[in-house]
């Protein structure tokens, strides 16, 4: 095997252990990432050197060929160290999982896979826009693609592009300027002329995802560089298998945040010994019970993530379970970080104890589409349809 292939290959049984070791290193930089919002490029160089950027890439293409159960565990481990890194990695894995399923045109897949063998060639979708929001809510993009000779000329602005400063490629959703418009998804190298970035990300948490705006001004992309296309008068098509992967990996990020909150809380409660108490805070029954609540929520999340991941890997039908997973795991993660703040007392609000950062990071999860109320509505309508 070549050196390039080795860079993207790691044995599956070792992948989680490798991720846990890297997470310890990333954790040392997590507070700085939160404070500055600087994209942690060095983390992705470390992930590349460790072979984790190719975790879900097929073995035939130099990757580990790992399934969803392993991938979610790796994402949770990284998130426990530095969650912005984990979210960008989850997006990268989601796209590469689609490539492994054969949903991409072979020539585009080969280009992306080769780049991923050579270095940290991160990629993500660029679909949301300032006016439209997420395409999950309906509506057509304002970003346009006009045919000119052998190229598409693309103009528009995309919002909330997770990991933008570190991406090599973006898959850009655009509306064609044709008699019968199409929705197309173009593979756009982000070093193309006419591509620029505007720093706009200023959310409560997950600061180092640098989910900024991507601006495209007369960007020329070859006509054949289409990842997907469909009539514009149809709702945006979603790959069901891709949704299973995405929702599981997204949820795994925030489970990792909750695990880190629990660990930081435990360090505080077991080490802090008020003079008036004469023993660690962890000896107080009320705090022990609160920790028990946290353990139940974390055990629920971990079991759901493993179970859905394994079912997908083994080809069992999962129906809407990944949507339920996304709802339950994220709600539980927010609850865990809220409990950690409550049980941590005054020190829980101090930045050097990190609990407030974990809570802000977990709250940010609620912005991901489809939001919890949309999931409940979909499930409720489906239940009514079955009953009538």
What does this structure look like?
The chain is α+β, with helices and mostly antiparallel strands and 388 residues long. It has 3 domains: 3-121, Acyl-CoA dehydrogenase/oxidase, N-terminal domain (Butyryl-Coa Dehydrogenase, subunit A, domain 1), CATH 1.10.540.10; 126-231, Butyryl-CoA Dehydrogenase, subunit A, domain 2, CATH 2.40.110.10; 240-387, Up-down Bundle (Butyryl-CoA Dehydrogenase, subunit A, domain 3). The protein is 50% helix and 15% strand. It has helices spanning 3-7, 12-36, 41-49, 68-81, 83-100, 106-118, 240-271, 285-313, 321-344, 355-364, 372-387; strands at residues 122-126, 144-148, 151-161, 167-176, 182-189, 195-198, 212-222, 226-231. Strands 1, 2, 3, 4, 5, 6, 7 and 8 form an 8-stranded mixed sheet that branches. A hairpin with a 2-residue loop joins strand 2 and strand 3. It is globular and about 80 Å long. The termini are far apart. The relative contact order is 0.12. Mean pLDDT is 94; it is low at 1-8.
**Sheet having the most strands:** 8 strands, mixed
Number of DSSP helical runs: 11
What is the terminal-to-terminal distance?
Answer: 58 Å
* Topology-level CATH name of the largest domain: Butyryl-CoA Dehydrogenase, subunit A, domain 3
| Helix/strand class | alpha+beta
Q: Which radius of gyration do the C-alpha atoms yield?
A: 22 Å
- Approximate helicity band: 40-55%
The CATH architecture designation of the largest domain is Up-down Bundle
Query: Strand share of the residues?
Result: 15-25%
CATH homologous superfamily assignment of the largest domain: Butyryl-CoA Dehydrogenase, subunit A, domain 3
Q: State the name of the first-level CATH class of the largest domain.
A: Mainly Alpha
The number of distinct structural domains comes to 3
Number of strands: 8
C-alpha geometry? globular
* Global mean pLDDT: 94
Low-confidence segments, given as residue ranges, are 1-8
The ordered H/E elements are HHHHHHEEEEEEEEHHHHH
